[in-house]
Amino acid sequence: MEKYINNYVIVTIFILLGILLPVVALTVGRMLRPHKPTEEKKTTYESGNEPVGDGQIRFNVRYYLFALMFVIFDIETVFLYPWAVAYNQLGLFILVEMAIFIGLLLIGLTYAWKKKVLKWNSI
Amino acid sequence: MLSSYLTLAAILFCIGLYGALVKRNAVVVLLSIELMLNAVNLNLVAFSKYGAVPALSGQVFTLFTIAVSAAEAAVGIAVLIALFRARGTVNVDEFDEMRR
Amino acid sequence: MSVDTAQQSFQPLTWSDAMYLAPEWILIVFMVVLVLLDLALPRRAGRNIIGWLTLAGLLTSLGFVIWRVIDMNAGADGPIRLLGDSYRIDAFGSMLKIVFLSATILIVLMSLGTVKREDIPDKGEFYYLLLPAVTGAMMMASSGDLITLYVGLELLSITTYILVGIRKHSAQSAEGAFKYVVTGGISSALLLFGMSYLYGLTGATNLGVINQALQMQGAAGNIQELLYVAFFLMIAGFGIKVAAAPFHVWAPDVYQGAPTPVTAFLAIVSKGAALAVLFRITFNLLFFMSPGFHLGEDIFMALLILAAAAMIVGTTSALRQRNAKRLMALSGVANAGYLLVPIGVSIKGLHMQNYGEFLFYLAAYVLMNVGAFAVLSVVSRAAGHDELKGFAGLYYRAPWTAAAMIVFVLSLAGLPITGGFFGKLFILLGAAQSQAYWIVAIMVASSVISYYFYFGIIRQMFMRGGGDEAEVHMPAMTGIAVWICALLTIVLGVVPGPVIGWVNENFSIVRDLFITIS
Amino acid sequence: MGNWLDETLTWGNTLIFALWGIVLLVLVLGFVTYAIYFERKVIGWMQLRIGPNRVGPLGLLQTVADITKLLIKEDTIPRKADRLLFILAPALAYVPAFSVLAVIPYTNKLYFADINVGVLYYVAISGITTIAIVLGGWASNNKYALLGGMRSAAQMISYEVPLVISVAGVIMMSGSMNLRTIGELQGDWFWQWNFLPQIVGFIVFIIAAVSELNRTPFDLPEAESELVAGYHVEYSGFRFAFFMLSEYVYVYAIAALTTVLFLGGWHAPVPFLDFVPGILWFLLKFALVVFFLFWLRATLPRIRIDQLMGMGWKVLLPLAILNVFITAVYLELFIKG
Amino acid sequence: MLADIPILSLITFSPLIGILILLFLPKQNSRLLKVTAITATIIPLALSLWLYADYDGAASSKSYSESATWVNAALNKETMPDLASYVFKFQYQMGIDGVSLPLVLLTTIVAVMAALASVHVKKRWKSFYLWFLLLEIGMLGVFMARDVFLFFIFFELTLIPMFFLIGIWGFGGREKAANRFLIYNGLGSALMLMAFVMLVMTAGLQVDQIDQQTQHVYYSGSYEIIKENMTAPDSLVNASPESPLYLSDTMRWSIFILLLIAFGIKLPIFPFHTWMLRVHTEAPPSIVMIHSGVLLKMGAYGLLRFGVFLFPAETREWAAVLAVLGVINILYGAILAFVQKEFKLVLAYSSISHMGIVLLGIASLNEIGLQGAMVQLVSHGLISALLFLIVGSLQERTGTTELGELGGLARSLPFMSGILLAAGMASLGLPGLSGFIGEFLSLLGLFDSMKVLTAIAVLGVILTAVYVLRSVLSITFGPMPERFGALRDARLIEAVPMIALLAFIILIGVYPSVVTEPMKHGFDAFLQQLNVKVGG
């Protein structure tokens, strides 16, 4: 039990250290660096041209599709990992079950492939 | 120990429910639903570890919940994209095609 | 305790167990094959073949379910319990499966006539997505564990989310789908939150174990408040799924947005499956309670109140409805109320045929609703919209279809001699036998109010229009579906005895409904 | 380190853990500093250049100078930017990069957190960086930055899937997600290490890992020719430094992870070389992986985005799944009783 | 001889022959359709006359009962292992007695007359007659059903055809009228169903002891069983409050009041009458003949059979209430009939008024009064059928039924005016015509128990004379508008039913035994029951 808690204390410490460094570095940096803002400095950079329109443009829906694909396949690992850990201790049927599970996912992938979700044709 | 988890879960759930019912932005609505589902997960895991009758099935349940909610979110987003293409907005108040 | 039970309840599936799941396997295999077929077929090729294969899959599965029922009735082995009772093949589940599969078969039949590529671009998907959806419904009917139950529920929900939005270029369809996703998501969150408390208080997800734990702890009385919270959250979740008032607001929009066959599927299979689960859960968890612990009574009362609200709200808000699909949605709300009554009255005194009443009305409801939706899909195709006035003068345009529609309307209104009448009558008798007279009164009153809008359809068909509207063409397959439904509706109305008798005789509460842990 | 873990938690222990953490932090910062130097030298060498040679002896202080420059450079935030998110993004990119290091073991004795779900922890935490990158791109309110951020996100999530699945084979071999156990269970001979039995998984893992790092040949998000500088175009000064820092910390993390998962960790390649301490073997393999990453950068051209996405989904993912199956069948036939 | 064949079912379902033939006839051939339909209505008339001739008092009512199990739904008897069977039994049970026989006869007569009068129908003859014959089946079934659910089904069976008949073939406001009809009557039948359900689930339980161990237990809708259980003092319903079937006083009263309202709507009793006015004005005249002539009687019949006979004690207690309701009906109907400007509305309110008399007869709770109520039912059925027959013919010719526009028709339509006058006389209760007998017997019966109310009721009868004479005379005499000069008097097909109906009216007026004879001992059991209750 101690080990369990200690492990996560370490993880917490790492996270805290991770947060601490940027905070410290940026604070120190603020003391060191100059601060002379002008209007030109604050414009959006578009390779030297006058910026046109808003930066937060509507982007291609394709990104969403990839996000969807990611969600599905990443969640798969939630089942895949425990299965992988326990694989050696269980019988043949577990292989069949996972074959069915993954098989269905592969069909999903084929579907997306065939429906040209995976095809990238512009930005 | 348990009660703090439960309280946190309940608060998350209420925030989620509030967001799902009140928020105007469709994406935020979907996010709120995910929040509710995560509150459930928190509950389940807390119970499976610290509950009156600790049992592993709660964590198994959580795995299923996570997977299913991911699928739900995927479908939700897909539907929202289709809707956005058709209507050009993600404002929930404007989804009133059928009330007219 | 924890490790032991976990070890005990973990029983992996074996090959022989897998054979019991044949109906479900068949559906899944057909789905996989059809997905691949749909992908392999050239874009221009017609997709009706997929519809036919879907039908074949459903029929095969139905055959296996029926075979299993007969086989089980012949022997006295008791139910088949898989994975530590998380999946049970018993009369409760199998009979419901027959209803769900038959409903889906009828829906596919009607779609074969009316679904055209113009309005559903992905026709193939439309057909094969019905398979996992109905599989989900079957899982729900068979599950004896919160986890399988939830997975089944979501399998059904998620596929129906897609089905509702399958006309992806239509704003209405997408809007309906989005609303359905949101309400569906909220409902499953509520449901799960309730389940999580239930699990936390009892440490189990198996309904039988939960029941036992509740019995032991119920007397202690220190967890009552949380139990109430758990059950009310679950009721709210199920309330949304079955579209019972006051959780029904989504239904008209979603029903209107969805393609008509999908609307029929939502109205029948989705609703029926959620009700079936509610049936199983409430009876399993709440039936044996310790003295001085009124959770069971209170929850059953809450269900009755929900039923009453659904009936009243459904019928009264349907009165001003001009859109046929929204009308059917609200009628569905009222019908959810009727179907909740046999659950809510619970087993009291001499009354214990709740399941028979429930199943009979569900069967009648399937027939009349599929029929009505089939006619509606044909009529709205001819009219180009699904307002009620599309029915105007149907008598002149398609007299036989109008005649079939009379049967469905009478059945929906609960008038003799149709299945709907006996369905309602049996429920009424059961409620009266349990001495829940107030719910009898509300049921009867809401039936009367419903006459107004159901006969509104008849008014449109027979008393409006001068015969100058477009001819209504009834496609052959849809016609077959309509007439099967009409005939069976009448058959149920003329000889209801054998059907409900068969159910009552082959369904044992102790064996098939309650999950007892050994 | 291991024996500290078994003791009851006290403030003293916590302090010790914190000190160890700081030590690692310093080491990692040092690594980053000289990894950059090393990279430039290696590439210079490969391109028949000299590389940095002015600041300090052999140019050893070049990176230090660079960092100092960044530290004292003026920090501008564009007027149109979403200020809060703009400030948050670099930090958010860095925190997970450092946090994942908590679970990496260096030898059987030298490790920090020893959690049972180490692999899962790594995968889960590292995923957060994607959000930071999208956030940075979005908050800049700049078209190039946004597109860079989106591309980067698309790339990272696409390659995370094969990365994660390719590890499944290793997990099956060891029956554990604990990185220390995985390292320990790899045999004494080098052909018993996971990279040979799991050759498919290993290849997929390496490719996906490079892509996860947004490094050449997969550095599309930063493609100067198309996107100016990608998601960090509006960043300057130390905020920019944190994006770079997290990238190099990930180089460290991935190199260490590869070593543990596939290259036998601290094991000597042949039993008779056991007298050399494990930590040296670990560092050797680690350095090899880092070198390999730099080598790739000098050698390969950047690939097109459609090729990139296609490769992730159409090649690596099926391969990774195939690997899982092969492993499963192999274990079924030969190992399982 | 008759007892050997299922005569009751034959009568009830004989219109089915007509329906089947009609289905195969061409849609356009109106003449053929009409002839077929009229012939089809004559069959049940002939059969029912035969039955009437053969009927021989209470003794033979037993021999005319028919019974078959329709729905035999097994109930779940899991926790009661020693039961041999546990079922819900729903029987097809038909029977006839002195109360129903005259009404059956009335139905068949009015049906023939209405079929004849339907020659005015202008469109969709085929479906008109289909619905018409279906309606007849429903009406006949109502009067003969001896199972509460069967009764209910036949009752509802009249609802649907009426909805179509009013809604398709009616006048301007037909749809609204059809709706009103449907909702009100639907409400009535729903309340009735509720009462029936409550009755069946308590009083309907029957235990058949086969031997020592085995029992057959069933719930039944059979009227006999319910009546037996309701009235036997030692039945499960009455004996012990611990029994799950025990009917408390509250329950009894609820059921009784439900039934009262249910049949009160149909009858109609005062506050529930509004739906009927619209039906009277908007429905096609031949349908109003049926409606006013038979359908309203179903309410009275139901009240008598299920309300009064099953709940003697409650009726006894509420006799005064019923009587007051009756008086209100009489006066309200009469006064409003007096101020109407539309002849159909006059007749509608007159129906309300006359139905009040039926209530009075029932409220008297003695043989004379009950017989009076029955005679009044039959007589009003015939009279109102006749009146609406004439109204239909008049309206076809003049295009109006406004009293202000009609006048002096005696000159152009002497025959029809004569019949109208005669019908009016019958309606106001002129001795020698049937109306008199009904009113006289009812009032006589009531006079025994409630003298003051009787006096007030008589006042109403006088008012009847006033409004009937006012309206009938204003139609037949007075100045005749120019355009009515060239009207044709009744054709043969109109004259025949008029004369026939008038003949029946006179027959009952002169020789009331044709109605009272069959029911001579019909009320004995009930009255005996009543006295037992009162005495004990």
Automatic annotation (TrEMBL), chain A:
Coiled coil: none annotated. It is a multi-pass membrane protein. Its EC number is 7.1.1.-. It is found in: Cell membrane; Membrane. It catalyses: a quinone + NADH + 5 H(+)(in) = a quinol + NAD(+) + 4 H(+)(out). It is an enzyme of class 7 (translocase). It comes from the Bacteria. The chain crosses the membrane at residues 6-28, 63-84, 90-113. Keywords: Cell membrane, Membrane, NAD, Quinone, Translocase, Transmembrane, Transmembrane helix, Transport. Signal peptide: none annotated. Belongs to the complex I subunit 3 family. NDH-1 is composed of 14 different subunits. Subunits NuoA, H, J, K, L, M, N constitute the membrane sector of the complex. NDH-1 shuttles electrons from NADH, via FMN and iron-sulfur (Fe-S) centers, to quinones in the respiratory chain. The immediate electron acceptor for the enzyme in this species is believed to be a menaquinone. Couples the redox reaction to proton translocation (for every two electrons transferred, four hydrogen ions are translocated across the cytoplasmic membrane), and thus conserves the redox energy in a proton gradient. PANTHER family: NADH-UBIQUINONE OXIDOREDUCTASE CHAIN 3. This is NADH-quinone oxidoreductase subunit A. The gene is nuoA.
UniProtKB/TrEMBL annotation, chain B:
Pfam families: Oxidored_q2. It is found in: Cell membrane; Membrane. It catalyses: a quinone + NADH + 5 H(+)(in) = a quinol + NAD(+) + 4 H(+)(out). The keyword RNA-binding does not apply. Its EC number is 7.1.1.-. It is a multi-pass membrane protein. It comes from the Bacteria. Coiled coil: none annotated. One of its GO terms (molecular function) is oxidoreductase activity. Keywords: Cell membrane, Membrane, NAD, Oxidoreductase, Quinone, Translocase, Transmembrane, Transmembrane helix, Transport. The chain crosses the membrane at residues 6-22, 29-48, 60-84. NDH-1 shuttles electrons from NADH, via FMN and iron-sulfur (Fe-S) centers, to quinones in the respiratory chain. The immediate electron acceptor for the enzyme in this species is believed to be a menaquinone. Couples the redox reaction to proton translocation (for every two electrons transferred, four hydrogen ions are translocated across the cytoplasmic membrane), and thus conserves the redox energy in a proton gradient. Belongs to the complex I subunit 4L family. NDH-1 is composed of 14 different subunits. Subunits NuoA, H, J, K, L, M, N constitute the membrane sector of the complex. This is NADH-quinone oxidoreductase subunit K. It comes from Paenibacillus spongiae. The lineage of its organism: Bacteria, Bacillati, Bacillota, Bacilli, Bacillales.
From TrEMBL, chain C:
The keyword Ribonucleoprotein does not apply. Keywords: Cell membrane, Membrane, NAD, Quinone, Translocase, Transmembrane, Transmembrane helix, Transport. It catalyses: a quinone + NADH + 5 H(+)(in) = a quinol + NAD(+) + 4 H(+)(out). It holds the Pfam family Proton_antipo_M. The chain crosses the membrane at residues 20-37, 49-70, 90-112, 124-141, 147-166, 178-199, 226-250, 262-287, 299-320, 327-347, 359-379, 400-423, 435-455, 476-495. InterPro entries: NADH-Q_OxRdtase_suN/2 (IPR010096), ND/Mrp_TM (IPR001750). Residues 143-450 form the NADH:quinone oxidoreductase/Mrp antiporter transmembrane domain. It is found in: Cell membrane; Membrane. Its main location: membrane. It comes from the Bacteria. The keyword Transcription does not apply. Its EC number is 7.1.1.-. It is a multi-pass membrane protein. NCBIfam families: NDH_I_N. HAMAP family: NDH1_NuoN_1. Belongs to the complex I subunit 2 family. NDH-1 is composed of 14 different subunits. Subunits NuoA, H, J, K, L, M, N constitute the membrane sector of the complex. NDH-1 shuttles electrons from NADH, via FMN and iron-sulfur (Fe-S) centers, to quinones in the respiratory chain. The immediate electron acceptor for the enzyme in this species is believed to be a menaquinone. Couples the redox reaction to proton translocation (for every two electrons transferred, four hydrogen ions are translocated across the cytoplasmic membrane), and thus conserves the redox energy in a proton gradient. PANTHER family: NADH DEHYDROGENASE. This is NADH-quinone oxidoreductase subunit N. The gene is nuoN.
UniProtKB/TrEMBL annotation, chain E:
It is a multi-pass membrane protein. It is found in: Cell membrane; Membrane. The chain crosses the membrane at residues 6-25, 32-53, 99-121, 128-145, 151-171, 183-205, 253-273, 294-312, 318-339, 346-365, 377-394, 415-437, 449-469, 490-511. Keywords: Membrane, Transmembrane, Transmembrane helix. Its main location: membrane. Coiled coil: none annotated. The keyword Transmembrane applies. It holds the Pfam family Proton_antipo_M. Residues 145-463 form the NADH:quinone oxidoreductase/Mrp antiporter transmembrane domain. InterPro entries: NADH_Q_OxRdtase_chainM/4, NADH_UbQ_OxRdtase, ND/Mrp_TM. Belongs to the complex I subunit 4 family. This is NADH-quinone oxidoreductase subunit M. It comes from Paenibacillus spongiae.
